[in-house]
Amino acid sequence: VPEGHTIDTVVPNLPVYLTLAQAMKDQLLAVGLNLEIRPVDPVQTAPIFYVQQPGDALISVFAGRSDPAQLLGSLFTPGPIQNPGGHTTPAVTELVAAANAPGDQSARAGAQQAASAEILEEALNTVVYHTMVPLAYHDNVVGVQSWLGGKPELRGVGIAAS
Known about the structure:
This protein is α/β, with parallel strands linked by helices. It is about 40% helix and about 15% strand. It contains five helices and seven strands; from the N terminus they run βαβαβαααββββ. A three-stranded parallel β-sheet has the order 2-1-3. It has a two-stranded antiparallel ribbon with strand order 4-7. Strands 5-6 form a two-stranded antiparallel sheet. It is globular.
């Protein structure tokens, strides 16, 4: 993009996101880009960005999906609300379809990896910041697992007999 270009960015009106947006604004300004911060009611963030589509970018959390192929389909194929601009490439669309096809899990995993590599190569999404939420529990708590998205899986969690 040309120097002086403005990126209109929707940001939930919460301190954590506004602080991140301001830091990004300062960093982008150093390379000649303007980040226009548009604070919105946090509850209205999704309807504003995905439905009304007033901005070029969104600074917010994304919960992810338990199945990576579902996540790829929702973000990188034309049609889903999480891809309001419909940004994709023919190769990404084909690879995501293969990742979502029923069948052998290892074949799907290979398609997911290939789709992820193509998405990275085409710069279809830029993750700037990823929060890691700490999880602490006592030694006698058993069965704690974490999903790939970093969320705790609490099914099967219990207290060990003493």
